[in-house]
Amino acid sequence: MTSVLQPQKETPNGTYTFSSRPRPVQNRSKYREPNSEQNDGQSTYGNIMYDRRVVRGNTYAQQIIPTTAQPEPAEIHRQQEARRRAVARRRAREQFRHGTPEALEGRKHIDVQTELYLEELSDQIEATNVECQTDAFLDKPATPLFIPAKSGKDVATQIEEGELFDFDREVQPVLEVLVGKTVEQSLLEVMEEEELACLRAQQRAFEELRNAQLVEVQRLEEQERRHREEKERRLAQQREVLEQEKETAEKIAARAYTQSYLADLLPSVFTTLRTHGYFYDPVEKDIETNFFPWLMAEVNNNLEKRYVARELLDMLIHDVTQSRLEIFKQLEPPTHK
Q1: Of 42, 49, 14, 46, which Cα lies nearest the Cα of 27?
Q2: What is the rounded CA–CA span in Å between residue 259 and residue 106?
Q3: Are 222 and 229 in contact (CB under 8 A)?
Q4: What is the DSSP string of 289-320?
Q5: CB 34 within 8 A of CB 20
Q6: What is the pLDDT of residue 39?
Q7: CA–CA separation, 279 and 270 (whole Å)
């Protein structure tokens, strides 16, 4: 349901009301369509006071930025840095600014005009723009003395001599504070010096006691170290003696066992070695390994030479016999048939 604005009429009591009651808008779809105005060729009217597209308030300082344009991150960062530096400069300027001293107890500061003419101060300044047409190149008259119009009421206060500041009375609390602070600081310094001297004495006594304790501890540690080394040396010597005794007993037992074991073993071993030929006569061994092979080799050489000589003789005899046989065949007369 939307209301359509119609001409208004005035009621007897001086108020204004609509001339017609609100009525629903016709020919409107249930859901909003993005291009409904272009398609239908007509637009619906409503209350523009609730339209978000209507800008309200002062628009002089607004920066119109298109919706598609997005500020760059570098530009945003630069603006933030500039704003932060400006705030820091303003705070530093405020800190180093010399302000008015605080008022004394029972008094307060007030704003007083020191100008030649009193004016009524107001927060809102009235300004009016007026335009006029002047003739060109006119002689400028002498500027009259400016006397502003009087505004407000004149108020005066009579101040007698000595009412604002009495040096003897005003300086007394300051002197009391200065003298009190000086005496208090002096007493604190004296007490601090005495306390430091006491602390140094206690520190010296503590260092002497600690040095004596350290010397005693070092002596006891050295004594304990000597006792420990002597104990370890004695234990090592005792262990070495025990190991030697044990080794000697093991050697004696091994020797007795070996003698008892080898009493019957040696004859049988010698007999077995002699049977297998491990024990032999050197002359016999030399004859068998050296003389007999040489003798057999020499006999074989002589037999081979004799065999070769016999074959050579047989070949000679065979050749001579064949040659004689051929000669005889040639000398034999032919037989006639």
Answers
A1: 42
A2: 128
A3: no
A4: IIIHHHHHHHHHHHHHHHHHHHHHHHHHHHHH
A5: no
A6: 46
A7: 8
pLDDT at 3: 44
Other CB atoms within a 10 A radius of the CB of residue 148 amount to 10
User: Residue 13's pLDDT band (boundaries 50, 70, 90)?
Assistant: low
Q: Of all helices (H) and strands (E), which one includes residue 36?
A: helix 36-40
CB 28 within 8 A of CB 44: yes
Measured distance CA(45)–CA(63) in Å, rounded: 29
DSSP label of 276? T
Q: For 17, phi and psi rounded to 5 degrees?
A: -135, 165
Residues 18-45 pLDDT 10s = 455 556 555 555 555 555 444 444 445 5
How many angstroms separate the Cα of 7 from the Cα of each of 10, 19, 63, 250? Answer: 10, 6, 36, 137
Give the least confident one: 70-74, 223-227, 263-267.
70-74
The pTM of the full predicted model, rounded to 2 decimals, is 0.24
Binned at pLDDT 50, 70 and 90, residue 5 comes out as very low
| DSSP string over 193-250 | HHHHHHHHHHHHHHHHHHHHHHHHHHHHHHHHHHHHHHHHHHHHHHHHHHHHHHHHHH
Residue found by looking up tokens 């009087």 in the block: 150
The Cα 209–Cα 216 span in angstroms is 11
Extents of the domains making up the chain = 170-279, 280-327
